[in-house]
Every structure is written in structure tokens, then in C-alpha cells.
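Appendix C reproduces, verbatim, an entry submitted by the partner laboratory led by Prof. M.T., so that reviewers can inspect both the input and the predicted structure.
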Amino acid sequence: MRRHLTMASSVRLGILAGSLMTMICSGALWPDNVPGAEDAESDPHHQRQWTFDSSSPGMLPGSYTVGTLFDGRPAGEWKILITDRAKSASQVLAQLQAKGTDQTHKVLLFEGTESTNIDVEVSYLAVAGKADFGGGLLWRAKDDRNYYLLRASLVEQKVRVYRVVNGVQQVVKQIDRPLPATGWHKLRIVQRGCEIKAIFDETVLFRACDTAYTSGRIGLWTKADAVTYFDDLTLKLLD
């Protein structure tokens, strides 16, 4: 009798486990509107974080590559900076060049970050700027002129995803959104295959699908005269 009860219990547990797996796979336990829901599918060993606190201030580590403007000059003045305004004490990665035209795109690429399906986020602080005020996060970059870009513009009060081809921006999708002019804010992109999910301060803004780029590096971006601090960059590789 005890043996029959044990076998029956095992069957019930098996059915329960199967139902649980079905709920997980269907998204019932990881609803789409919960920030970080995708993280459960990422391998914790495939995660990197940059706090910029261990790098020498006033310099730029060799693992970063500054882009080149069309006239041959470096695309911005990127430095590790000590500041009491850091999101996590006490250093940030800053773009400090406070001049440039509307077509001046300042790009910094992170070497060794070649990836395909990703969950990448960074915090930014808009410090100064008149022509532009804010910053951007780029991914699947082939080089400093071909990449995807998530940009928050406080001047235009818009968040956009661009595909940048040979330095020319093409809007994939955008949304009008009131953007606070002060404080730290977070840009986040989750992409699997063609599906792009754009997130600002833990709120999913929109989805899009684009197949222009399938893999590449991550990086940071500013425009025109914007001075911007970046901190706590995280890259997760997804299955």
C-alpha cells in the first residue's frame, strides 16, 4: 500500500512539474511587463559590468576605442573622471567636449564585447549642452559608423532607436516622452534576433524589429555640444 501511495505521489509531482514548465515557457510566470524578466534566461557567467571606478582618472583604458569624425578628428573627449556626481562612487566615464555641430556624433566603442542577443543597460547624467542634451547607448556596432543606437534627447523630448548606416541615422522607431533634465537615468536595450525592446528608467517604451545588423560591439554616444556622464554599464549575453 505504501509503495502504491509513493508511486501515485511521484506521478502527481511529475504532472505538477510539467505544468510549471509549461507556465514558464508560455510566459505566465515571467510576464513581459516586469523589468528584468529576460534576465532569467541569461547565463550569469555571460555578464560583464563596468563601474569605471578601478580605472586611472584622466585617461581612457586601451580597451576603449574613440570613433573618428568625418574630418578625421577624434569623436569626442572621452575620459575617466572623478566626481561627486557619480551614480556609484566615485568615477564615471565622461564625454567632455562641449562643442560640435548637429552632425557631430561622438562615439566610443568597447572592445571585446562582440555579441548578438543581448540585454545591455547604462545610466547617464546630462551635464551640459544647448544644441543637444543627453546621450545614447549603441550595440551591434560593426564600427563607429554602422550600429544601432538608443538615444534620449532632452532637447527634443523624444526617445528613438536608430539604425546608423555609414554615419547616417535612420529612425527605426521613436516615442515622444517627457524626459527629466536632472538626475541619473537609465537606457536599456534587450534584443533577440530582430526583436528590439527599448526601455527607459525601467519602463518598456516600445518594440521594433530590424535586421540590418546581426552582431557587433557595444558603445556610448553623444551629439553636438552635449557633455554627458555615464556609469554602471552592464552587458548580459542571452541565449
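The chain has two domains: 1-30, 37-238. Additional entries are available on request from the coordinating office.
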